[in-house]
Each structure stands twice: as structure tokens, then as C-alpha cells.
Amino acid sequence: MAPKSKDSRQRLLEPLATNMAAFRAAMGLGVTEIGVIREAVRMFIESRVAVDDALRERFEQERARLRVEKVRPLRLVKKGDRKLT
Length: 85
Known about the structure:
- The protein is mainly alpha-helical and about 80 residues long.
- It is built from 3 helices and no strands.
């Protein structure tokens, strides 16, 4: 049985939790659970969009939409207009 994850957000369940612990131990120091998960997600996305043109199109559209939502306009304030609270 795998040791309990230090990050309570990751609930891999068995046998995946044991496989993750064994993989991290085999890789050596510095390999974190989240690092392994991030790389796995990147590879999963890349492999799926590489073979499915319709999925790739939807993925790119959604990614573009999310990027636009992250952009926040700058608010310019004239010197002396600021109110200190």
C-alpha cells in the first residue's frame, strides 16, 4: 500500500497510488507527485489532440477563450487622484 499523499487533493486510489509511489521511488529524489501528474496530463492532452482534428479545434478554441478571460485591463490613475484609505 502506498504511503499517504502529502497533498490531500490527490486521491489516486489503489492500485494507482501504489504505482505512483513506486514510480517516484524509482525515479529518485526531486520527483514530486504533482510533477508526475502535470507531465502525464501534458502528454495525455498532446496525444489526444494529435490524432483528433475536431478535438484539437475545440481545444484550441477553448484555450483561446480562457486566455482572453485572464486578460485584465490596466487602470491608469493620474498622480494626485489617488485616495489613501
